[in-house]
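seq/struct pair 1
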Amino acid sequence: MLKVIISDDEVKVIQLIRYLVSWDQFDMQIAGTANDGQKALELICAEKPDIVITDIRMPSIDGIQLIQRTLELGIHPFFIIISGYGEFAYAQKAISLGVEDYLLKPLKRKELEAVLLKIQKKYQSRQQIAQKESFLLSQLNESQEKIKNNLLTELLINKNSLIPTMDTISLQKEYGCSFTEAVTELLVLHIFTGSVENTTVNSEERGFLLPKLEKELKNRLAPFCADFICTQYKENVICLINRSQQAEEQITSALLKLKISILGYQNIYPDMRISVGVSSISLPLSDFDSSYQEAQTALLDRFNRYDQFLLIHHASGYAQDLAASLITSQDQRELISCIELIDIPGFTKKLEEIRRHLLPYLSDGSLVYSCYSKLAEIFLFGIKSYNSGEFSNGLNMDFLLSAFDHLFTFDEIYQWFSETCKTLLIQYLEGRKTLENKPIRLAKQYIMEHYNETITLEIVSREIGFNPAYFSTVFLKSTGQHFMDYLKEVRISNAKTMLLNTNKSIAEIASAVGYSDLKYFSRLFRKLTHLTPSEYRKLYG
């Protein structure tokens, strides 16, 4: 609603204006009244009204002075002047100050309503223009921000980009960048969801949190930067900041405040952890790839750091070829042997031994990552070398290395890897058993489809491609029954079904399940069920 203030030295005039029109009809309300100019000015300062209706002649400050002082204070309401016939010169002065209109006393309702209607339309028009300008400004800002973000995205996905070779003037002209300060850093904010396999939940969590964290990073860091570019990339928030040397403490303080805010999100997602990897200082964009790698490496150094939220890059303290001495050729041979023999306890024990060897080196995340990658390669090689290929489909390095993206601590990652290997080896073992049992399943299937025909051990062996003697041995080992005993059970089982569900004679049923000799069928039926076919039908039919 539009707020209205009425100012007149006559109380009766104020009351007349208050009740002369229906203010709700114009979406307006009386915010206050005053009977002298000074009080009116104080009321205007307090209420910031949209409309002021004032007499010209008033004690303390007259109407003209009231308008002038109000405008000087930066307050611009619509003014309506009330004047007498002898005050026409004052009214002209008021009009020159931008007064909306003036009304002669005595006031008439239609004249006041006409002025209010005109003001209402002007106000709505102003609002529409202001909204349009605000929208256009917002679009312009968003467009400029998108151009900057595109620069960062281009640097991340295009290794052959020419952007790093551009000077600051070209960057300003092409992308609107203001790299005016000496210090440029790259920050990578990463969410560790605490679960590798539950990718749907991981995606939902990151989809919810990343935009919020991106906004918080911008709000907290941008005020201390000459330039700030931020985007989401590969489920991270990537920030490129250009700042002065003196802003380091302010940036660090802002990130620690962000850490406090993140604790609120962890109440919703208790398994989630968040860290920020920071690159070393570089020239604006000349060595962007190295800066990005440094920030990623900083995230790997989280295992043995006091502050696991803010991770600033530092050079590795160990030679990378140390990984070869931590996982020796002998270790590799033993692990491969365990996989070949499906020795799950031996494999797990060897992994634990290597884990203990890595503990003194946790401060160097790159070294730990190299060792883990080596273990993953060994496991993949072993598991793909000693199976038919079906089992290993879908198993790859990306899946095994994804533990570093989702799990926070070294122990969590190592335990997941050990359990995953154990589970896969068990599945491999079961798969191998399944492959070995496949001929028996085929034999059973053939028997079920042809039990009413002449079936012999030789016929079934030929169907599945086995030597009869070998098939007889394998069948007994797998089922615990001799081939002919199993065939008899299948035939009698089908005979039972026919006795209960058909009106066929005993002879017809005997023939239907593969026996031409009715007496032999009856003896066999009684031997297996302790009832004759007729007794079985009578008892259960």
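seq/struct pair 2
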Amino acid sequence: MSNPSISVQISVLPNNPGVYQFYDSDGKILYVGKAKNLKKRVSSYFNKKQEYGKTRVLVKKIHSIKHIVVATESDALLLENNLIKKLLPRYNVLLKDDKSYPWICIKNERFPRVFSTRKLIKDGSEYYGPYTSMKTVRTLLDLIKGLYPLRTCNYDLSREKVESGKYKVCLEYHLGNCLGPCEGFQSEGEYHGQIADIREIIKGNFKDSLQTFKQQMKDFAENMEFEKAQRVKDKIDILENYQVKSTVVNPKINNVDVFSIISDETYAYVNFLQLSHGAIVRSHTLEIKKKLDETDEELLQLAITEIRQRFNSTSKEIYLPFPVMVEENLKVVLPKLGDKRRILELSERNARFFRQDKLKQIKITDPDRHTKRIMAQMKADLRLSEEPVHIECFDNSNIQGINPVAACVVFKNGKPSKKDYRHFNIKTVEGPDDFASMEEVVFRRYKRLLNEEESLPQLIVIDGGKGQLSSALKSLELLGLRGRIAIVGIAKRLEEIYFPDDPVPLYLDKRSETLKIIQQLRNEAHRFGITHHRNKRSKGAIGTELESIEGIGKKTAEQLLKSFKSVKRIKEASVESLAASVGMAKAQKIYKSFH
């Protein structure tokens, strides 16, 4: 601890749960964190070498420490979340969300109206939500409107004014959308019975409403009021159709919050589903920007607190993919099988789709961020010390040892840099020896880059397994570059990634962007090498055809090809034209051979 004031500040910290705040020398907030034991947690920043560079930078900037003691670790979790949103520290994850979410309001009135709003007014009205989509709100309100005739006017329907006959029914009454409480045609008790049913529908419980409508339909039918019975049957069909669409799991799963997380090197995506009577009544995905290489456990814990606060969740049970510390009164379930597992997988799919959509948008709108993210992902996946902005890949091409060639392709910022591609004709190796050929081309490539003082790549990819990788390493060793440039080999059969001095290969997820970049490199090197090899074989075949003519050697064949460009033109040329290039004696032999 180089700063004695920091030592003193840590020495007076209590061994209690709480929240700590780091400030820099200018008094600006750097970081807010929670702890089960404040003294132990804060000391850990200064007593050990930090694994991550960003954390080391944070520690160097800390000038003063403040803390708040709370009763429990759960209280610390809530306080930390509130302080992060209020203070916006530089090194904490970003949980920004500027949206004003819609609510469904049941107005505190004698005959309550039901409508959507983005403003919460503390007048005793009931608010359900917030909803993450206005489409969900409209669907629910349309359902309610189709089932229950409610007033839409904003008149003060006090008992005195209704009884005095102040109001007259409007067009909505004549259309059948309202039962006329303004003129006393509908009792307060009947109206509030509808509101009670509407509360349950908003909560996702359709059982009571269905039973009420079925009983109404039966009563109308028994009284021979078949038109009324049909109208009630239509309402039952509407409600059952909505229930089928919204019920995704066992209806017994009630009042549950489900959380899942998908993350990469720079961002995490936490999906939240809220279930009521087996129906999803809310879905939201929170995007979180990482600042200090936070773990999924840390991010999920913070997101659960934030999302439950944001959406006023009162659920006492939550489903999670792995255990994290949450509020004390919550029951945590880690589903392994059945309906509970399926709903957790649905949440994970939602998070994954949200991430994919975001990445597609970023690729179009912010290509720099897209590139940085891929570079950061490759650095992590391949355990590199720096981001592989410049990558080179080598591939050998030969058919039965004939015309052995090699190709080097170059990617910069994850994209092909075709002007930097290079072909190699194998010079020192006789016959089909892939290992020796790889050793030669890698040596020639980096010997030249060193001599010309050109920039070296951060990563070399060798098309092949351990043998080709070992050959390339020999050349890097001779040039003094081993350890300065990261190098891996990719074997074709199972797409294994081999590292120097590690017999166990790495198997990347088949959907991994890192693997896709490496496969693209390998395929591009193969294509580039094969093209060169094919051209060389063609020229070799042409030369052989001319050299098979008695008295015509390699130099004469080359001279003819230089003059006429192709064997076809040589065949069609007159003796005089041929003679102008190689002399009359040879021209007559060539002409006689083809004619």
